[in-house]
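FW: tagging you since you asked about this chain on Friday. Here's the raw sequence from the shared folder, copied in full. Didn't touch anything.
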Amino acid sequence: MKTSVKGRGAADNPTNRFESIVLEREPEWGDEDPLPKTQFFRDSTRSVLSKNESPDVPFNYSLNPYRGCEHGCIYCYARPTHEYFGLSAGLDFETKIFVKEEAPALLREMFASHRWKPESVAIGGVTDPYQPVEKQLGLTRKCLEVFAEFQNPVMVVTKNKLITRDIDILSKLAQVRAVVCCISITTLTEKVRSVMEPRTSSPDQRLATIRALAQAKIPVGVLVAPVIPGLTDHEIPKIIEAAAESGASFASYVPLRLPMGVGEMFLGWLERHFPDSKLKVMNQIRSMRGGKLNDPNFGSRMQGEGAFAVSIEELFRVACQKADLSQGPMHLSTEFFRRPKPGYSQLDLFNLN
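HL: got it, structure written out here
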């Protein structure tokens, strides 16, 4: 059995599904690789917004300043995207991060064009916009400055307390009903969090983040995702209750889905960390996914099917009812969208001129 890698979700680099050549370790090389260091690469993409073609996702456009994610969440459905770069969905995904340095400029160019019809954009729908490197690079903050400049609505999803750094900008957007924040909480059990999402903020820090955003009058909710049957599903009522007490005004959830090679990686992770629960978890996942580890079909992929899916849905509904939380994110407004006139300064956003 593969051993864990300190501070990482994956334990190795499974074979890229597009590659026909596989490198395997020779016995004389030793049993372990040195701890992998995170590397950053310039992403020269000229398209900053991704068009969503999924009818079961509540937004048409998403923005992700980073490809790959240092957070290392073992279940992340975005892991297979690294295979398009000739890399692995395993350790490569969390140690080889592509940085879209031109994202703020490209976003401003898009919003300034009269071809852009104002509508909500999601930041963090694929990889987390507040992963650790954001503290140094500030790409997400610069993008938020563009959203505030044009007053275009934005929904931000994160597992990281770093979002509180940008309360000044988020508050400006909140004044024109153009922002909503979703703090993802998978578990309140630190032991589980530390091995499942190794470089994310702790559960207590995420609750504190909800509290800070709510106190700043920024609309904030909790995203219980993914719900892992047999491992974290029983925590739904406590997560909802804790989030509501911290100031969350709405809640959403998504059951675990394991596309492509993520299923085998997750299976290996269970074997390493929760061997006694492995059979129960995998059986319940399959019962929700038509006997498989993943269901790619629109609608059912975001909710699951069968008895366990219904049980989770009911547990979530009752928990929200008790906590007086609405289900699903609030509606954002495009009413105040504007294209600043020539000579406009971003400093005007903060009344510094």
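FW: Residues 20-32 have pLDDT under 50 and may be disordered.
HL: agreed, and DSSP finds eleven helices and eleven strands in the chain.
FW: great, closing this out.
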